[in-house]
UniProtKB/TrEMBL annotation:
Pfam families listed in its UniProt record: ADH_N (PF08240), ADH_zinc_N (PF00107)
Summary of the function given for this chain in its UniProt record: Catalyzes the oxidation of 2-deoxy-scyllo-inosamine (DOIA) with NAD(+) or NADP(+), forming 3-amino-2,3-dideoxy-scyllo-inosose (amino-DOI).
Name of the molecule in the record: 2-deoxy-scyllo-inosamine dehydrogenase
Enoyl reductase (ER) domain residues: 4-327
InterPro entries cross-referenced by the UniProt entry: ADH-like_C (IPR013149), ADH-like_N (IPR013154), ADH_Zn_CS (IPR002328), ER (IPR020843), GroES-like_sf (IPR011032), NAD(P)-bd_dom_sf (IPR036291), Zn_alcohol_dh (IPR050129)
Species of provenance: Streptomyces echinoruber
Catalysed reaction, written as an equation: 2-deoxy-scyllo-inosamine + NAD(+) = 3-amino-2,3-dideoxy-scyllo-inosose + NADH + H(+); 2-deoxy-scyllo-inosamine + NADP(+) = 3-amino-2,3-dideoxy-scyllo-inosose + NADPH + H(+)
Pathway the protein acts in: Metabolic intermediate biosynthesis; 2-deoxystreptamine biosynthesis; 2-deoxystreptamine from D-glucose 6-phosphate: step 3/4
Length: 329
């Protein structure tokens, strides 16, 4: 079959690889589309994935075309979305309900062959059946949405919160859609790129700005979400949290990023600073939210490119082009 392969650090190609065959509790999914994200760039740079070559792609859905001998939950012809999380279920983190922090954490498309290919292998436990009205080529959005749902789980946001989001890329916009639906009193979005803010405005937002000063809210926001990973944005955001408010680190910063905090204010104003990592018990709910129209795929997916153009698609993503880029086998 045809597949994208990250052969070595900095080198991605599209080539022929053997078709997968399912183990007893696995299925083969014919991939309808596979999304690209920052994780794929990290893998290309030699981080995250211990073993190259690797077929990347952890954001995908499609049709089941083969099932293992002990699979009864799904059948050939079913539409499924695939949770890429591979937790060991044995370590202390798994056993205390924190599988996303598993000591032997793995992911389909990160530590095993993924969905940037005609076919992908998945444990049946990772497959979520999709209703017929869902277009599987759009359902690549469920995985990033499940990360956003996890972020909202961490926030435990109450009704009537004033929310400030840094970054209006795919993840910031997903947080925006969830904030609207979790009863925020207002949702403001900050981005230094005016073109990206246009999409936030199109989706419905209270206010947008290139700098939070323009929003003139000296008392701060109950919830501040960083969806950039950028040090300047994070530093600014930490200083915008209202009394009793929460800062969520949702964007992926570089390992070396550092910001300063104000311990007296954290104490005196009961500020919470927290983070959320990937997916935890949130994929199924993301699939249901997606099937119920929580976001418009035609807004979120800006580019649909053939799988053959995978290296170019990665380069476009790295250059910050558009929003979600998916490749179609
Ligand atoms: Zn991703
Ligand atoms: Zn574990």
């Amino acid at each position: 079959m045809k597949a994208a392969v990250i052969e070595s650090v900095g080198r991605a190609v599209v080539t022929e690889v053997p078709d997968p065959t399912p183990g007893p509790r696995e299925v083969v999914v014919e991939v309808a589309a596979c999304g690209l994200c920052g994780t794929d760039l990290h893998i290309l740079q030699g981080e995250f994935a211990p073993k190259l070559p690797l077929v990347p792609g952890h954001e995908f859905a499609g049709e089941v075309v083969a099932v293992g001998t002990q699979v009864t939950e799904v059948a050939v012809g079913d539409q499924v979305a695939v949770d890429p999380s591979l937790h060991c279920h044995e370590c202390r983190y798994c056993r205390t309900g924190h599988g996303n922090l598993c000591e032997r954490w793995g992911g389909i498309g990160v530590t095993t062959a993924g969905g940037a290919a005609r076919y992908a292998l998945a444990p049946v436990a990772n497959c979520v059946k999709l209703p017929e009205h869902v277009r599987t080529q759009d359902a690549a959005l469920i995985e990033p949405l499940s990360c956003a749902v996890r972020g909202y789980d961490v926030l435990q946001s109450r009704l009537g919160a004033h929310v400030l989001i840094y970054g209006s890329g795919t993840m910031g916009l997903m947080m925006l859609e969830l904030a609207k639906r979790t009863g925020a009193a207002s949702v403001d979005v900050v981005d230094i790129n005016p073109a990206r803010l246009e999409t936030a405005e199109q989706l419905g937002v209270s206010r947008t700005a290139g700098n939070a000063d323009e929003l003139d809210r000296p008392e701060g926001w109950d919830v501040v979400i960083d969806a950039t990973g950028n040090a300047a944005a994070i530093q600014d955001g930490l200083e915008r949290v209202a009394k009793a408010g929460t800062f969520l680190q949702f964007g992926v910063a570089d390992y070396a990023t550092r910001v300063t905090i104000d311990p007296y204010r954290i104490y005196n104003q009961e500020i919470t600073i927290t983070g959320s990592m990937a997916v935890l018990h949130s994929y199924e709910r993301a699939a249901e939210l997606f099937a119920n129209g929580v976001l418009d795929p035609d807004v979120f997916i800006s580019h649909r490119l053939p799988l053959e153009q995978y290296p170019d698609a990665l380069a476009q993503f790295a250059a910050g082009v558009g929003r979600k880029i998916v490749v179609v086998p």
